[in-house]
Design goal:
With 154 residues, the protein is α+β, with helices and mostly antiparallel strands. 21% of the residues lie in helices and 32% in strands. The protein contains 3 helices and 8 strands; from the N terminus they run αββααββββββ. The longest helix is centred in the middle third of the chain and has 14 residues, at 66-79. The chain is globular, with a radius of gyration of 18 Å.
């Protein structure tokens, strides 16, 4: 009886005894990037959506601006090959690019971050919800926004 009560208490406390919550698959049916005609002073723009599987690496990335991230990207991928997956694109003003689900369907992550390599100063980093039905990265003149459709919407 005591053993069952201890097991039940461990499960009710978030199962921290068993490693806590696990990384999840992005629920997006699609991931799209749309650049305004005046995005990045009408110049091409690199954008990465980074799927992060390590909480310590997530803390490191959350402290980086996009300029620092893009300068360190190759080193980050070499140093943490099992902690990161990058969904990257180079987009020109006025262009729309869509990634189908098969591009990332096998991936799991604790979190997703989007970095846009604007020429203008700024953080240009946004956390992306993994549980939305669709995800749109809208690149504007000097910054960007990420919107995720609710899971019930399509």
């Amino acid at each position: 009886m005591k053993r069952s009560a201890l097991l039940l208490a461990a499960c009710l406390s978030g199962c921290s005894m068993f490693g806590g919550p696990k990384p999840v698959r992005p629920a997006w049916h699609g991931l799209a990037f749309a650049a305004a005609f005046d995005a990045n002073a009408s110049s091409a723009l690199a954008v990465d959506v980074v799927l992060v599987r390590d909480k310590a690496v997530l803390d490191t990335l959350m402290a980086m601006s996009a300029a620092r991230y893009f300068a360190a990207r190759a080193d980050l991928l070499r140093t943490y090959p099992d902690a990161l997956s990058v969904l990257g694109v180079e987009i020109t003003p006025g262009q729309t690019i869509r990634f189908e689900r098969k591009r990332y369907e096998g991936e799991r992550a604790w979190a997703a971050l989007a970095f846009a390599n604007y020429a203008a100063p700024g953080e240009h980093r946004v956390r992306v919800a993994l549980d939305g039905a669709a995800c749109l990265v809208q690149l504007n003149a000097h910054d960007f926004v990420v919107t995720a459709a609710a899971s019930g919407a399509r």
